């Protein structure tokens, strides 16, 4: 219902309002623009440009999460490597590849080399237990056609050839190593991709209001009233929309709660920050060409799995290591130190308290990480690059992540989730995305779920167009090897990933 005390004048009426100019809003906007080109769209972004928070390339790992190398997606459970989550994430990344390919063919995206490039994905283990795990993981994944061209080796000469920077000065005798790898991995610059999406959106008539922070979203009959403030002038505007998507990163939770969405009751957010070490020595950058993921420290959240990454950003090859865990009460990198405290409500207090009791290992890990100085960070880097010299590296603040705390019953009360959670109201007129990894990599699959939940009555009408954008829609690629091969060849060619 309308807020009787809200007499602010409506300045605009739109069909679709997108809060946040990151990869999620950009992806959903592109989908809806193709399905309903007559619908008007507006994007609100509190910063002065697109993709400057979680979608920014230095705030985002940019792995193109497809579970090729990320060990936290293949847990070792009583001696058996469980690949269920890896299969699920890999399949969702194939959906991303199909959508990006379609958008390139339709001229929405214009240059794949700006946002996606081929980079080997490598899983790395050291010590007898990890070597055994890497081998078993390789055997489990290589049996699936979703993980093509995978190889394994525990030979030091192969290691030295594949990863020369990591081999220099390494004591292979006292600390055995193993790697599995595939040459079909990718590095994705989601910032560049988002900019391409939004450039096309503006050309198609979408209005983008940068420097506008959404203060509130209120129900107004069958529609929504969005009050936004120009952060530079202080002027407020109210826009009424038929459908609202909240892709505001860490701020999504409070905006959905303020909108009165019942499904968000009891949910809370746990902010986790981080840092990277970025290499400043071009000679070292040229010595390493891979994304190498290892095992996380005990108690570390999955998003803190250490990795040594080749990045391709704005045409420049770079190298980063991390992330190092940290903590701040901010819900966004450019947020407020009051964010966490303002987010605590009577309905989610038990969720916070429940997680506080259960996640003592995480708290201990974060405290240890916060206490690390630069030299300590370089010492951790030496587990990957034994001869690392701090003079070749600089610290870069990573993006802020807010992990979802989901309300559950006694005795846990709250469950800390490390994936993404879609929230929508019963009528499907408002939706939002909470959480982090694998995040941007599976944005098209996540936004397809938004369509299914919020526009179910249109899915039959939209089916032919959806199948154009997602040829494997409704088909399990893990079970259909022929279709997988066709889609792989199509997307490899369109995204220009063949080496």
UniProtKB/TrEMBL annotation:
The keyword Flavoprotein applies. The keyword Flavoprotein applies. GO terms for biological process: tricarboxylic acid cycle. InterPro entries: FAD/NAD-bd_sf, MQO. It holds the Pfam family Mqo. Gene3D superfamilies: D-Amino Acid Oxidase, subunit A, domain 2 (3.30.9.10), FAD/NAD(P)-binding domain (3.50.50.60). Its cofactor is FAD. Coiled coil: none annotated. Pathway: Carbohydrate metabolism; tricarboxylic acid cycle; oxaloacetate from (S)-malate (quinone route): step 1/1. Its EC number is 1.1.5.4. It catalyses: (S)-malate + a quinone = a quinol + oxaloacetate. Keywords: FAD, Flavoprotein, Oxidoreductase, Tricarboxylic acid cycle. GO terms for molecular function: (S)-2-hydroxyglutarate dehydrogenase activity; L-malate dehydrogenase (quinone) activity. NCBIfam families: mal_quin_oxido, PRK05257.2-1, PRK05257.3-2, PRK13339.1. Belongs to the MQO family. This is Probable malate:quinone oxidoreductase. It comes from Corynebacterium maris DSM 45190. The gene is mqo.
């Amino acid at each position: 219902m309308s807020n009787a005390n809200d007499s602010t004048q409506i300045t605009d009426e739109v069909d679709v309002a997108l809060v946040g100019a990151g990869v999620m809003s950009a992806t959903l906007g592109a989908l809806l623009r193709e399905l309903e080109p007559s619908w008007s769209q507006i994007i609100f972004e509190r910063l002065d440009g697109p993709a400057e928070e979680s979608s920014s390339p230095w705030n985002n790992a940019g792995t193109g999460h497809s579970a090729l190398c990320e060990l936290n997606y293949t847990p070792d459970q009583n001696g058996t490597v469980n690949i269920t989550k890896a299969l699920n994430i890999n399949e969702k990344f194939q959906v991303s590849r199909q959508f990006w390919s379609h958008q390139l063919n339709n001229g929405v995206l214009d240059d794949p080399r700006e946002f996606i490039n081929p980079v080997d994905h490598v899983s790395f283990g050291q010590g007898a237990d990890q070597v055994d795990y890497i081998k078993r993981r390789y055997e489990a994944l290589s049996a699936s056609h979703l993980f093509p061209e995978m190889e394994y080796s525990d030979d030091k000469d192969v290691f030295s050839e594949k990863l020369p920077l990591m081999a220099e000065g390494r004591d292979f005798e006292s600390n055995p190593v193993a790697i599995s790898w595939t040459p079909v991995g990718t590095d994705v610059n989601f910032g560049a991709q988002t900019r391409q999406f939004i450039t096309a959106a503006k050309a198609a008539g979408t209005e983008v209001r940068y420097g506008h922070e959404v203060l509130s979203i209120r129900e107004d009959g069958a529609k929504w009233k969005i009050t936004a403030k120009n952060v530079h002038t202080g002027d407020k505007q109210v826009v009424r929309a038929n459908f609202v998507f909240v892709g505001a990163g860490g701020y999504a939770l409070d905006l959905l709660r303020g909108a009165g969405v019942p499904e968000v009751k009891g949910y809370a957010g746990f902010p986790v920050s981080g840092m990277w070490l970025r290499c400043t020595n071009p000679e070292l950058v040229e010595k390493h060409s891979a994304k190498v993921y290892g095992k996380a420290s005990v108690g570390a959240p999955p998003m803190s799995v250490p990795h040594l990454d080749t990045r391709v950003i704005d045409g420049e090859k770079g190298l980063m290591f991390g992330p190092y865990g940290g903590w701040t009460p901010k819900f966004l990198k450019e947020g407020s130190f009051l964010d966490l405290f303002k987010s605590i409500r009577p309905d989610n207090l038990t969720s916070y308290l429940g997680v506080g009791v259960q996640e003592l290992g995480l708290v201990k890990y974060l405290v240890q990480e916060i206490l690390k100085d630069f030299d300590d960070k370089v010492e951790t880097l030496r587990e990957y690059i034994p001869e690392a010299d701090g003079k070749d590296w600089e610290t870069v603040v990573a993006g802020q992540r807010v992990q979802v705390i989901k309300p559950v019953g006694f005795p846990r009360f709250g469950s800390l989730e490390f994936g993404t959670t879609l929230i929508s109201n019963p009528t499907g007129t408002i939706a939002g995305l909470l959480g982090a990894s694998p995040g941007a990599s599976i944005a098209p699959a996540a936004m397809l779920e938004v369509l299914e939940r919020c526009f179910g009555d249109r899915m039959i009408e939209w089916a032919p167009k959806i199948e154009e954008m997602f040829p494997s829609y409704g088909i399990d690629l893990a079970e259909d090897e022929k279709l997988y091969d066709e889609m792989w060849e199509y997307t490899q060619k369109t995204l220009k990933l063949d080496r």
